[in-house]
């Protein structure tokens, strides 16, 4: 494999101002696939052998729209080593995609999670997989809105105790596929609604009389958006028991939130390959999971399957070296899209289907083994 000492830029076919795609790693098959896919969509591929190799780039050049990082860059630089990568290359807002192997160590995946990785390509990387992500980012593969059954619910969380008030409940609601608006103060809740410009499905406020405070400070526009919205007032003690609040929230939203059992999830890092339908003739792509429950898992990816679709899963377990295969159904999906004011992770929640007792017991043992003491 030929090593590169710095950025390698194509000299043919570049378009001034074309969207850039950055590869952080050595020259190899992944870089070649990325280059072909980028050029096919009118993008400029740029390569750097190390994360700091593009630090001297001129600020006048277009910022990267997508950044792919080889897993050895995460391992060699350690946790936090890539934390400033986006700032160094002017890629604020660009998704970070990890390129991993099925046997990538668990500690590397954990470090990648801490770095904010939003997707994962499992080697060997295909040109189609890179092109699908670029197409999604560039808006060249529009996604049809989901049916009412699978459409996301927008929940506004407002608490006088600050954003940390909602750490537990907020993460659980995001894992259920809901889209969230956070307000650090009750006073700011009405302005968040007006900024979003659409009626939320539920308002959850912390503290006695909080709903009255939101309504009193709302503008005429915000009041129109809040009028008739169901609300739930909770105490700080109730906020600390986020799992117990979920059934009440889902009842008000008119959703069944028990199928994924997100309150039972544990940290569990593994690359995941998935395909809609059966194995034969299926088109496989990949993502990464950082949390799993006995009922399902969250797959972080820019190109999730359709909500309600039946999927086949391949879970590459780094702790044991096994490949666990299963079937599932997509409970919810957040495709790549601009959502400036909403908090909703890219990816999909998958509910396991048809697991026999031995495999289900094995999965539960894996979850228990990674659960904090």
Please characterize this protein's 3D structure.
- This protein is α/β, with parallel strands linked by helices and 373 residues long.
- It has 12 helices and 15 strands.
- It has 3 domains: 20-137, Response regulator (Rossmann fold); 154-253, Rossmann fold (3-Layer(aba) Sandwich); 264-370, predicted glycosyltransferase like domains (Thrombin, subunit H).
- The chain has helices at 29-40, 71-77, 85-89, 106-115, 127-137, 167-175, 189-196, 210-216, 220-226, 236-240, 242-253, 357-370, and strands spanning 20-24, 44-48, 64-70, 96-100, 119-122, 154-159, 179-183, 202-206, 231-234, 266-276, 285-292, 296-300, 310-316, 323-334, 347-353.
- The strands form 3 sheets. A 6-stranded antiparallel beta barrel has the order 10-11-12-15-14-13. The chain has a 5-stranded parallel β-sheet with strand order 2-1-3-4-5. Strands 7-6-8-9 form a 4-stranded parallel β-sheet, sandwiched between helices.
- Strand 6 (154-159), helix 6 and strand 7 (179-183) form a beta-alpha-beta unit.
- Helix 1 (29-40) crosses helix 5, helix 6 (167-175) crosses helix 11 (242-253) and helix 7 (189-196) packs across helix 9.
- The longest helix is centred in the C-terminal third of the chain and has 14 residues, at 357-370.
- It starts with 19 loop residues before the first strand and ends with a helix.
């Amino acid at each position: 494999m030929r090593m590169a000492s710095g950025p390698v830029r194509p000299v043919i076919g570049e378009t001034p101002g074309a969207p850039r795609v950055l590869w952080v790693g050595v020259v190899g098959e992944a870089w070649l696939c990325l280059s072909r896919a980028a050029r096919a969509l009118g993008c400029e591929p740029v390569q750097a052998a190390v994360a700091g190799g593009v630090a001297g780039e001129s600020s006048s050049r277009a910022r990267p729209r997508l950044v792919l990082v080889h897993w050895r860059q995460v391992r060699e630089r350690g946790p936090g080593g890539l934390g400033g990568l986006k700032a160094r290359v002017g890629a604020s807002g660009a998704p970070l995609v990890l390129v991993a192997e099925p046997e990538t160590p668990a500690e590397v995946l954990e470090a990648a999670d801490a770095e904010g990785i939003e997707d994962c390509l499992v080697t060997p990387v295909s040109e189609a997989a890179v092109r699908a992500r670029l197409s999604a980012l560039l808006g060249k593969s529009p996604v049809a809105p989901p049916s009412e059954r699978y459409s996301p619910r927008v929940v506004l969380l407002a608490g006088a105790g600050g954003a940390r008030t909602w750490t537990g409940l907020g993460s659980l609601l995001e894992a259920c596929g809901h889209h969230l608006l956070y307000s650090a103060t009750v006073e700011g809740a009405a302005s968040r609604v007006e900024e979003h410009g659409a009626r939320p499905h539920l308002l959850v406020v912390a503290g006695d009389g909080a709903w009255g405070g939101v309504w009193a400070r709302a503008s005429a526009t915000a009041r129109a958006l809040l009028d008739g919205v169901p609300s739930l007032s909770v105490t700080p003690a109730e906020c600390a028991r986020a799992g117990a609040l979920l059934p009440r929230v889902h009842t008000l939203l008119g959703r069944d939130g028990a199928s994924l059992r997100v309150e039972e999830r544990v940290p569990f890092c593994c690359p995941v390959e998935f395909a809609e339908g059966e194995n034969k003739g299926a088109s496989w792509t990949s993502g990464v999971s950082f949390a799993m429950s006995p009922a399902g898992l969250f797959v972080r990816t820019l190109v999730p399957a359709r909500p309600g679709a039946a999927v086949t899963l391949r879970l590459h377990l780094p702790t044991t070296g096994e490949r666990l295969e299963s079937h599932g159904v997509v409970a919810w999906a957040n495709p790549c899209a601009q959502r400036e004011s909403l908090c909703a992770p890219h990816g999909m929640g998958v509910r396991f289907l048809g697991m026999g007792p031995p495999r289900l017991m094995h999965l539960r043992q894996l979850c228990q083994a990674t659960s904090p003491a």
